Amino acid sequence: MDPTPTAPALPPVSGLSRAVISFLDGELREREALSLASDLVAGLETQCRDLDRSLVELRSRLEVNLAAYSSFSDRVHGSLGGISAKFVELLSLVGPFDSLSDGGGGRKILGEELPALAKEVARVEMVRAYAETALKLDSLIGDVEEAVSSTLKRKHSFAQSSEEVRMHAIRTLNEIEGVTTQVSKLRPRWTHLVCAIDHRIDRALAILRPQAVADHRAFLASLGWPPPLSASTSANPDAGRLTAVPNPLLTMQGDLKRQYCENFLSLCHLQQLQRRRRSRQLEGRNREIALHQPLWAIEELITRDYVDSMDELLQPLVDEAMLAGYSCREEWITSMVSALSTYLAKEIFPLYASQLEEESITGVRSKARTSWLHLIDLMISFDKQIRSLIANSGISFSLMDESNLQKLSSLSVFCDRPDWLELWAAIELSDTLDKLKADVDNERNWTKKVQGVVLVSGPEDFRSPLVSDFFLRRLSSVVDRSRSLPNIPLRSKFLKLVGAPIILKFLDCLLVRCQEAEGLTALTDDSALIKVANSVNAARYVESVLREWCEDVFFIEMGLRVGDEPGKSQAEEGDFDGTVYGPGSGVFDKEIWKLEEFIVEWVEKISVVVLRGFDVSSRDYIRNRKQWQGKSEEGSTVSRTLVDALDHLQGKMSIIEESLNGMDFVMVWRKVAEGLDQSISNGLLLSNMKFYDGGIERLSSDMEVLFGVFRAWCLRPEGFFLRVCEGLKLLRMGEKQVKDILAGGLERLKEEGISHLRVFEAEKIAKNRVFTS
């Protein structure tokens, strides 16, 4: 009878490494696990075969790289050999010539061939350096890619071995980053090489970082983190206080603590590498904001959601069922939003709507409006969290159409209930206007100016009162809330129901203040003029900001979709004056047009006030016929009767310049100049005044002083007094010249540079000229 075969002797424990002992403790912890030893052996053999296959692939890849490097070395050696031959040829040419007596050959070699040869040597050296750098980086990146691939294959193998491979990959990545940084600084033209390196590193990090984070999460879970909530909230009746819950991070000992520290450091090193790369890539920009991020390892101690289980558990089942095009993560998020939207549409909004209806009937103010706005705030906050969750999943919002975005927003309840949207808009508008009332009633807000306004169009000083900034802030808040709506027609309608009335309310406030100032003193008082100027400044500031907003893509999209709202035709987009705002118009175009109309109207009124005062002050000057018939007053540069009118003009224009914004002040002084040109030309030149030589000299002197008032705002004010200047030009001409010009008609007048006076006006001015022999 054969003896019973004996089992092979086990190796002594002292001969096993710490990693092997840790692995066996983890896999064979229970006695029942011994029955699965054969499966464990089979798994280990499979992993060994995979590692052997990887080793063969590495060897073949190394052979290919060595062959490529050998080929390149041969080419470089050949180039250097050619250069050496050229040097020998050069020496043979230079030898027979004396450097001092050579007439031309030596100078040609030294002056032409040597620089070309040096340039060729430098080019070959740069190619050699480029090739060596590229080969070095390729070799290092190959090591990283192999390490990343190895960590994936060792996912269920020795944890300690996997961590060592990852740390080796991180060290190699740091070495690559050091070389890349040096190349970026010393060889700025090698951009294609740097871009290629960054692309391959990005692919490696896209695998390495999620895997490191996943391993860290798994390690935290094995520690029992986070502590159970039930234990932390249970009361101890004997002690009369909460039971103490041990912190797993503080109870770690020995190898467990060392492994956690190494795992934590691995994440930290990886984040530091990422900071180095971002710092290099953002060179020359504001890097502090972009580089500042929370510590990844600390973030993992905060539990926020369980959506990852959708990918790990359910997605394989969906794929196995061959349901193509479905993502469990997206379906879970969509279902969660849909469930909330359905609940709000069936239970909450009908209740709030009925409360508002009851409030409108009874007239008793309830909390329904406050509750409605609070609910909207919660919905917007919820949608932002959903967007953050989707963004962290790698889904881009820019690639989604409106139908998908609508599924991911709780505010989609308004898509099927436009009456609820109108209710929300009415509540939002009422709440905003209530908050603005105190700002409008505070007179200090109408005198204190907005400081530090810089728009994209330029650093214009609008001199706008502070109340305009309050309106814009409230309006900006409304715009931000509209961004949360899931489609463009809803956003456009909401802004027209809330934003447009806010702008019109602001315009009404400006109009009331201007009408009050005009009704009291007809704007003759300086304080009334300043009050109107402040209102014009406020309108100009708001109009400029709105125009800048409307250049944003958010508003442009809404302008392109005008007329998309159900039951709304383009004819309804017109205004009372027949202006039609069709496709391509902005949401606030009508309001901007009304602000511009207000500005033009009151700038015109300011100009009229100045002109009216000048006409009154210069009445004696205009009616004095004798002053144009005698000689000019000696020692005087301006007629005495014109002095008061000029003082009035300078005083008013000085007040307007100090009070009004620069853009509209230009409109004012140009309108005043145009009005004075008409007034003087009609009142003097085209009247029945008779002008002698002395009178023409006096009029020319007076007009030069008048032009000097406007020279503070333009270099050539004569260009804004064209009728007066052309009239003076006719008066200065000789008798025969005037007759010849008038005989030639309109064409001859234009040839003489007189284009703003008609023929009969030129003839009338000529008749008023008295020539003395």
UniProtKB/TrEMBL annotation:
<dbReference type="InterPro" id="IPR042044">
    <property type="entry name" value="EXOC6PINT-1/Sec15/Tip20_C_dom2"/>
</dbReference>
<dbReference type="Pfam" id="PF04437">
    <property type="entry name" value="RINT1_TIP1"/>
</dbReference>
<dbReference type="GO" id="GO:0006888">
    <property type="term" value="P:endoplasmic reticulum to Golgi vesicle-mediated transport"/>
</dbReference>
<dbReference type="GO" id="GO:0006890">
    <property type="term" value="P:retrograde vesicle-mediated transport, Golgi to endoplasmic reticulum"/>
</dbReference>
<dbReference type="GO" id="GO:0060628">
    <property type="term" value="P:regulation of ER to Golgi vesicle-mediated transport"/>
</dbReference>
<dbReference type="GO" id="GO:0070939">
    <property type="term" value="C:Dsl1/NZR complex"/>
</dbReference>
<dbReference type="InterPro" id="IPR007528">
    <property type="entry name" value="RINT1_Tip20"/>
</dbReference>
<protein>
    <submittedName>
        <fullName>RINT1-like protein MAG2 isoform X2</fullName>
    </submittedName>
</protein>
